[in-house]
Every structure is written in C-alpha cells, then in structure tokens.
Amino acid sequence: MSISKSELICDLRNYIQDELKDSYYYQELARMAPTRRAQEILMEFSRDEKRHAERFMDAYCRLTGKKYQPGPARPSSICDYEQSLKERIMEETNAYEEYGRKYQDLCDPCLRRMFWDARTDEAQHAMRIPILLHEMGADCYPEKERCSITGV
Fold it and tell me: DSSP alpha helices (H): ranges in 33-80?
C-alpha cells in the first residue's frame, strides 16, 4: 500500500503535534518522578520525542517547501504518576505500530529511515517504562488481570 503526498503531509502535522505534546508530558512526569534515575529516563524520553518532532518538521519542509509552525503543545496536567506511566506504555506501543505502518507504506529511503528510527525509540520507551513502575514498587498489571499457568 502506498501513501499519497497530501496524506503524508497531513499525517506529519499530526505527528509533530503529538510528539511535542509527548515531549512536554515526559517533562512533567520527570518532575513527579520519585528517583533521580527515573527523572533521567523520563527526560531522555522527552528529548527523543522532541527529536522526532524536529525530524518530522524537516520532512514536512522538504515535502512542502514551507516550515511547519506547530501550535501550543502543552499536555493536560498529570494527577497520578503511576497511572500515567501505565497509560504511556499503550501510547508508545500505538506510536510504534503507527510508525511501522508508515515505514511500510513509503518508498523514499530517507522517510523510511525517519519512521524506522522513531518506531525504534517508541518501542524502547514502552519497554523501559516498566522499569520506572518497578522502581516505585508498582506493577504493570493489577492483580485481577493476572492469570497463572495453572489457571489456563
């Protein structure tokens, strides 16, 4: 399946906004983090998301000849650190899948590489968030959602 240039441009605008929002979100989570290590990991995620937005903006400029001016990207306030981390696992996984589809739909090697790199970062975020939950003594799954091998 191939993607049209106009569809890609529209998608890039959405991805830029999403990545900038995610960058700010991780900064907010870092302020709430219980340990220095957790703060560092979350700030690394924030930098990754900002870099994705910058790369998407570069691609947008190459495709349109215009610089994209993103709107305000401040996320809503975070009430529960643990729950927010759990939600981020799914958000990162969804981004991983979305960028994987874009990677498959494109022929241009530079665009494909951009989506491959963003996809890889999103997967790494999703895999590292459980470390943050473990550090705070939280589990990724509530007791009721677990099942044992013997219960299968």
Answer: 36-64
CATH number at residue 124: 1.20.1260.10
- Structural domain for 73, as ranges: 5-151
Query: Minimal CA–CA distance to 114: which of 69, 63, 71?
Result: 63
Q: pLDDT for 84-107, tens place per residue?
A: 999 999 999 999 999 999 999 999
Per-residue tokens: 152: 């299968």
The total number of structural domains that make up the chain:
1
- The CA radius of gyration of the chain, in Å to the nearest whole number, is 17
Question: For the chain, how many helices (H) and strands (E)?
Answer: 4, 0
pTM: 0.86
Q: Which residue type sits at 11?
A: D
